[in-house]
Amino acid sequence: MATENPKMMECVQACMDCHRSCTEMQMKCLETGGCDSKMMKMMMDCAEMCRMCADFMMRGSDMAMRMCQMCSEMCNTCASMCESMAKGDAMMMGCATACRKCATMCGQMAKAQAA
Q: Where exactly are the structural domains of the chain?
């Protein structure tokens, strides 16, 4: 279980922070019209992947580390898109930062399990 592993709990928190950041950014984009449909889809996918990854870890799923690997890839892609669209927007850069942190944490979890 994730609650027995401090590193995993840290990863779960990074996933939930990324989920929140992507969801909040989606809302801002809807309000301001500042994102294209590709960016909106990426943020939706990233938010959902992060939520699912956290759920898998908290349940102690046998597939959790595979989810961590996919989540790491998704978060890196989303972060790159956020960075390219930010144009000085602090909230968009905050979303990119949350995505990068989640990507790093999930990548470390996946590698630790593979070792």
A: 2-114
Query: What 8-state DSSP symbol labels residue 3?
Result: G
CB 17 within 8 A of CB 24: no
Residue 109: closest CA among 1, 3, 10, 4? 10
Per-residue pLDDT of the chain (115 residues; tens, 9 = 90+): 556 789 999 999 999 999 999 999 999 999 998 899 999 999 999 999 999 999 999 999 999 999 999 999 999 999 999 999 988 899 999 999 999 999 999 999 998 876 6
- Tell me which CATH code domain 2-114 carries: 1.20.1270.360
97: closest CA among 21, 11, 37? 21
| Alpha-helix residue ranges (DSSP H) falling in 33-89 | 37-59, 64-86
Query: pTM of the entire structure?
Result: 0.93
